[in-house]
């Protein structure tokens, strides 16, 4: 029996990238802990730990599209990480997704196939929602052009 492989995904079901990432986790035979971060945002200390493990800055995970990024003036380079974290706490939609944590590491999985580096082997072929083939019938990652 394989070792347990604990996976947490900070997920937005309205996001295609997040849905594809979740599907690839499941294609590896894993049922992850799914945290809908808009309903249950990660605590500030946990977010700081996740970013450190992923080697990302707070700015690296700020989402601009479909958020109040511009209205809040978040492009201002003088804003500190603390101020940006305060704003993410107040507006969780600003947190880019999906963030995935596994025993192999933490990553912002954009594009969604970035999750493959954090998982055991895929258990079969996988196509994204848009029809793009990502994994072949042998569970191997397909080279992209």
UniProtKB/TrEMBL annotation:
Q: What class of enzyme is it?
A: oxidoreductase
What Gene Ontology biological process does one annotation of this record name? response to arsenic-containing substance
Q: Which UniProt keywords apply?
A: Arsenical resistance, Oxidoreductase
GO MF, one example: arsenate reductase (glutaredoxin) activity
SUPFAM superfamilies referenced in this protein's UniProt entry, alphabetically: Thioredoxin-like
The source's domain of life comes to: Bacteria
**What EC numbers are recorded for this enzyme?**
1.20.4.1
Q: Which reaction does it catalyse?
A: [glutaredoxin]-dithiol + arsenate + glutathione + H(+) = glutathionyl-S-S-[glutaredoxin] + arsenite + H2O
**Homology family:** Belongs to the ArsC family.
What is this protein's record name? Arsenate reductase
Q: Say which species the protein is native to.
A: Methylobacterium gossipiicola
